[in-house]
Each structure stands twice: as C-alpha cells, then as structure tokens.
Fold this protein.
Amino acid sequence: MTIRWYLIVVSIVLIALVAVPLFQLAYFDGLVFYSNALDELAYLQFEHASMFFEHYNRLTQLAVI
C-alpha cells in the first residue's frame, strides 16, 4: 500500500466516523443522539449524575458532570 492509498483510506474512515454526529448536529439543531452501546453508557451515566447531583454517592458522578 502506497502512502497515497493509505491517506485515501484513512480519510474515508475518518469521514465515515464523523459523518453521523455531524449530520445529527446539523439536522437536529445541535442535539446528538446516542445510538450504540458504547455511547449509551456515557449518556446514561451523565443523565443519572445530573439528576442526582445533590445526592451524589460516587466521585465518578462529579467527574461526569
């Protein structure tokens, strides 16, 4: 694989990874929805931490907020 093909493949992969969040950012006026298991855990942790901020019981909740 030459450097040119490597750069083309890396560019396509980066565009594919960034395309969905950028589309959601433009289409939903800044709201980004989490759709897979990797993002959902962080999203739910943030929501849980922000709901129970006054009664936090773990230091990681402060790090998320």
